[in-house]
């Protein structure tokens, strides 16, 4: 071996080491995708792996929405202020690293000082100390660019063939992550939606309430049970009953048009409404106004299958702070209040009180004794 061969052999060894590293973290990322790790964590891990390959690299993953808006999906090496500045630059399409969004393959800007596309950035207080930028389009299954993987450097750099291969692999992994996340979101939508009314279902209700408890946000829970709905089923059949439920869902959603909250179909003729009125200055009054609106909307005649119906409901109300961060306790309290409203003659509402539970438990004991 001649002395002149030494640098070439060293480069091959470096390339082999980088390729082995690529395969190792590619397998790791595949494992994390299969394990269901969140999109943000996966993309951050991908960026951090690329940052570790090259000195002073800053890797970003950007996504272009169908309306043209650019979103920073991952940029683990940037601080909050840098992200805000970069987002402002991108909103004006002043970041030439976005070139990968409009052109296939790898776009290389070896020195921004010699690239006219960076003229605007030169006049800005750029959040990144950039001299060189490589950007690789992230393409969807149809080959359309949906994002870009960008690596910025504070010195002039040009990617060698292995670096280009690494970027292509990384962009493909990012595309896979986004695809899996999109499919997961679509599947979750199917699993968390009621097929009849298209409202969120009990599964989503549980997830949302647990999230509110974790964030320690005050909220109110309305348990809405239609009065005498079984009579409609018995007289007109399940087909008409289903169409009535769809109209009920539409009217209940309308009650939240000017009020923060969300409606769920709990099952059968039962609905649950979660609302943020507990944060208002007069939460009890706001809750009562909401209940009155619900009853008024349901009472208005609805025509279904050439038949006219006027409905009512019994509503039980509980508050998250009373439930001790327990999903089942919250619903138990709201359910007890709803039964108290039914016993009061229906077409009304009741706030939860502890003696309601005591009364229901006593009734249950009497039934068991009989």
Can you walk me through this structure?
With 370 residues, the protein is an alpha+beta fold. It folds into 2 domains: 31-185, 2-Layer Sandwich (Beta-Lactamase); 202-369, Reverse transcriptase/Diguanylate cyclase domain (Alpha-Beta Plaits). The chain is 49% helix and 19% strand. The chain contains 12 helices and 12 strands. The protein has a 5-stranded antiparallel sheet with strand order 2-1-5-4-3, with helices on both faces. It has a 5-stranded mixed sheet with strand order 7-8-6-11-12, with helices on both faces. A two-stranded antiparallel sheet has the order 9-10. Strand 9 and strand 10 form a beta hairpin. Helix 1 runs parallel beside helix 6 (161-191), helix 2 (39-53) runs antiparallel to helix 6 (161-191) and helix 8 (229-236) runs antiparallel to helix 9. It is elongated.
What keyword list fits this structure?
370 residues, alpha+beta, Alpha-Beta Plaits, 5-stranded antiparallel beta sheet, 19% strand, disordered N terminus, disordered C terminus
Summarize the entry for a quick read:
By secondary structure, the protein is of the alpha+beta class.
Helical residues, percent: 40-55%
Count of discrete alpha- or pi-helical segments spanning 4 or more residues: 12
Low-confidence stretches: 1-14, 121-125, 366-370
Major sheet: 5 strands, antiparallel
- Please write the CATH class name of the largest domain: Alpha Beta
Shape category: elongated
CATH 2nd-level architecture of the largest domain: 2-Layer Sandwich
């Amino acid at each position: 071996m001649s002395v002149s061969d030494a640098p070439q052999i060293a480069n091959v060894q470096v390339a082999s080491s980088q390729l082995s590293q690529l395969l190792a973290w590619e397998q790791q990322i595949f494992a994390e995708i299969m394990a269901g790790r969140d999109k943000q964590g996966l993309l951050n891990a991908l960026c951090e792996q690329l940052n570790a390959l090259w000195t002073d690299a800053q890797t970003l993953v950007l996504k272009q929405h169908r309306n043209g808006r650019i979103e920073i999906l991952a940029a683990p090496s940037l601080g909050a202020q840098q992200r805000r500045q970069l987002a402002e630059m991108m909103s004006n399409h002043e970041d030439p690293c976005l070139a990968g969004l409009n052109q296939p393959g790898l776009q290389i800007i070896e020195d921004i000082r010699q690239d006219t596309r960076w003229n605007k950035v030169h006049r800005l207080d750029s959040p990144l100390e950039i001299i060189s930028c490589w950007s690789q389009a992230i393409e969807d299954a149809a080959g359309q660019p949906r994002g870009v993987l960008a690596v910025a450097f504070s010195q002039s750099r040009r990617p060698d063939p292995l670096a280009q291969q690494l970027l292509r692999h990384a962009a493909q992994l990012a595309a896979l992550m986004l695809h899996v996340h999109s499919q997961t979101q679509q599947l979750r939508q199917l699993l968390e939606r009621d097929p009849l009314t298209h409202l969120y279902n009990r599964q989503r209700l549980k997830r949302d309430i647990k999230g509110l408890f974790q964030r320690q946000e005050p909220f109110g829970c309305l348990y809405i049970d239609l009065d005498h709905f079984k009579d409609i089923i018995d007289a007109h059949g399940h087909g008409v009953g289903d169409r009535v439920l769809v109209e009920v869902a539409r009217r209940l959603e309308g009650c939240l048009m000017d009020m923060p909250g969300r409606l769920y179909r709990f099952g059968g003729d039962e609905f649950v409404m979660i609302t943020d009125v507990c944060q208002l200055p007069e939460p009890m009054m706001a809750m009562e106004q909401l209940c009155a609106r619900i009853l008024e909307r349901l009472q208005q005649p609805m025509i279904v299958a050439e038949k006219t119906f006027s409905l009512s409901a019994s509503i039980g109300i509980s508050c998250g702070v009373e439930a001790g961060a327990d999903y089942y306790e919250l619903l138990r309290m709201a359910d007890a209040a709803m039964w108290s409203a039914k016993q009061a003659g229906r077409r009304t509402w009741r706030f939860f009180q502890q003696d309601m539970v005591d009364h229901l438990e006593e009734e249950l004991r009497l039934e068991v004794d009989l």
